[in-house]
Write a structure and sequence with these properties.
Blueprint (H helix, E strand, L loop, with lengths): L2 H5 L29 E6 L7 H13 L5 E5 L7 H5 L16 E3 L2 E4 L15 H13 L8 E5 L6 H9 L4 E6 L3 H16 L3 E7 L4 E2 L5 E2 L6 H9 L3 E4 L4 H8 L10 H12 L3
Parallel strand pairs: 1-5, 1-6, 2-4, 2-5, 6-7, 7-10
Antiparallel strand pairs: 3-4, 8-9
Length: 276
Amino acid sequence: MNHLDDQRGAQNPKPIFPRPTPPTALALTTADGKPTRVFGIASGKGGVGKSTVSANLAVALTETGARVGLMDLDIYGFSQGRLFGATEPVTLDAEEKIVPWHHHGVWLVSMGMFVDEDQPIIWRGPMLGKMMDQFFRDVAWPDLDVLLVDLPPGTGDMALNMAQRLPNAQLVLVTSPQPVAMHVARRAAEVARKTQQSIFGIIENMSYLRCPHGERLTIFGEGGGQQLAEELGVPLLGQIPLDPQIRQGGDQGQPTASREVPVFRDIAETIWRAEP
């Protein structure tokens, strides 16, 4: 029986990955010197709309009065540049640090600043952690109240990098309603548990389609987000509908669905009002 087997069945298992001391180089601060609140937006699998949720939630947070940054750490599947309509070339400040894009009130960094949108990133795992470090150390971030980190799907290198470098970050898990997505998101939650990271809550995306006559069609089933939230003992932050305005906004570089889809504002208010 190996160490992992010993963990199974234990009521209060010890974490497999010890929680390290957070590197101070990765810390950001607010205007009054307090630590920036960091939320990792994660999903167990791709295709559940995690990046679109991240973009629209970031804009919704600015509408609460927060100073918001968004770090696109979905290195292989970077998309925040397109979602925000950001295409400007990289610029450096007087200290030769990268100046983040600033669109729709959000400060943003992404691999899209450095490579063509259609160019693949072919890196081994260790490079991901180095890129994460650079996105903190080599970017001229302003004072931020909230930083959202768009994480890649799955439970691989970047999930561990997040736990090691930002152990005080809280995770928001995005899932769609059907069981196949919910169970994969549960694996991401298990990584958070084993690395002693806090899960802030669950967002269920593509929950329903609102028909013109008012009926709700649950195209991808229903109840997955609520079930996952109950299993983890965390709140279901919101259920985001399938709405053409969300898709159109992403295609046009206008992630402003919070103005037409109120649930984004509701989730943003919950995050902003929560105790650090």
